[in-house]
Amino acid sequence: MDLIKELKENKTILLLVSPTKYNDSVVAITKKLSKQSLCYVTLNKTYQSLDETFNKKKINCENIVYVDGISKTIKKTPQQVKNSYFVSNPASLTELSLVISKFLKHNFSYLVFDSLNSLIVYEKKAPVSKFVSSLVNKIRTSKTKAVFLALEGYEDKIIKETSMFVDKVIKV
């Protein structure tokens, strides 16, 4: 799959990734997209962990800004640091929506949302579905193209609903 080509043809993509290939896929996706401005929304790994991994894999992180929804749940963290903004927790959908909306105004080339499965752990299905629908609509009115990640094999109702909102679903 040529992700850049897919994103030229589609504004929003849902990538269903095998759990055994998830970490490698995250690295490969970030490597491809980080050549341009990238907003990386993380709900399952801290920005520090991702940044370390990406640097080890020789990914230039200068073009990446993180929206970190997990760090504040495990340690005291400031509101923001260089290249990272912290959301209080993954269940704070309103806060997450406001932060992402703010970043969409900066006309990032790409947004990676990691991951839809993480939302379901913290919040009920109806608010998550509404959040994802709203986010996809905000992306459509921006210049940013988006990749939503989800684990393949865990396609519950939210993942199935999300597939209706996005332009294309791809199994990796």
Q: How is this structure best described in words?
A:
The chain is of the alpha/beta class. The protein contains eight helices and eight strands; from the N terminus they run H-E-H-E-H-E-H-E-E-H-E-H-H-E-H-E. It has helices spanning 3-9, 22-33, 47-56, 71-74, 93-104, 116-122, 125-140, 157-165, and strands at residues 12-17, 38-42, 64-68, 80-81, 84-86, 110-114, 145-151, 168-171. The chain has an eight-stranded mixed beta sheet with strand order 4-5-3-2-6-7-1-8, sandwiched between helices. Strand 4 and strand 5 form a beta hairpin. Helix 5 (93-104) packs parallel to helix 7 (125-140) and helix 7 (125-140) packs parallel to helix 8. The longest helix has 16 residues, at 125-140. The radius of gyration is 15 Å and the shape is globular. The mean pLDDT is 93.
Biggest sheet descriptor:
8 strands, mixed
Sheet/helix structural class: alpha/beta
Helix content: 40-55%
- The SSE order reads HEHEHEHEEHEHHEHE
Mean pLDDT: 93
Q: What is the alpha-carbon Rg in Å?
A: 15 Å
Number of strands: 8
Strand order of the largest sheet: 4-5-3-2-6-7-1-8
Q: Quick one: overall form?
A: globular
Helix tally equals: 8
- Measure the end-to-end span: 8 Å
Strand content: 15-25%
Low-confidence stretches: none
Attribute tags:
8 helices; alpha/beta; 8 strands; 172 residues; eight-stranded mixed beta sheet
Secondary structure layout:
Layout: H1 3-9, E1 12-17, H2 22-33, E2 38-42, H3 47-56, E3 64-68, H4 71-74, E4 80-81, E5 84-86, H5 93-104, E6 110-114, H6 116-122, H7 125-140, E7 145-151, H8 157-165, E8 168-171
Parallel strand pairs: 1-7, 1-8, 2-3, 2-6, 3-5, 6-7
Antiparallel strand pairs: 4-5
